[in-house]
Hints:
This protein has 184 residues and is α+β, with helices and mostly antiparallel strands. It has helices at residues 2-24, 74-83, 106-143, 149-182, and strands at residues 40-43, 46-49, 54-60, 63-68, 91-92, 97-100.
Amino acid sequence: xxxxxxxxxxxxxxxxxxxxxxxxxxxxxxxxxxxxxxxxxxxxxxxxxxxxxxxxxxxxxxxxxxxxxxxxxxxxxxxxxxxxxxxxxxxxxxxxxxxxxxxxxxxxxxxxxxxxxxxxxxxxxxxxxxxxxxxxxxxxxxxxxxxxxxxxxxxxxxxxxxxxxxxxxxxxxxxxxxxxxxxx
Length: 184
């Protein structure tokens, strides 16, 4: 039973890790290199993340500087950024690409907060699904006489406590990201 609870906590932790990765890709006023994490470039027929093809730096709070190691890939990187859902036009000087992030409007901030809430809710649903699967597993173990009814009740309480803890962490992550977006 302890093995089941450990596996459950690991799966819940992965839900939070996924939420954190999602939040990193949401731009909140400041330039953040992780907004490029989901963008891949066709590099000799292989989809390659930009951070594996270039040095990415933040010379100013609202600017990203992308310096490809292979100058011939600059057009491909520029094209990948244009076709992505980033919504920023790259400027290319032949050696590097600059991404200048405009200040967020009030309306855009509200949309981003809604998106943050939606992603947090999805993570909480995933955590609850993990709990449900583990509860089913406990019931099977009880049915097969692998554990006693008291063990089952204890296991259910531990699973619920873990679920509450991870959902609380997801709520805290959501609040933190909302504050980051709403601060000017």
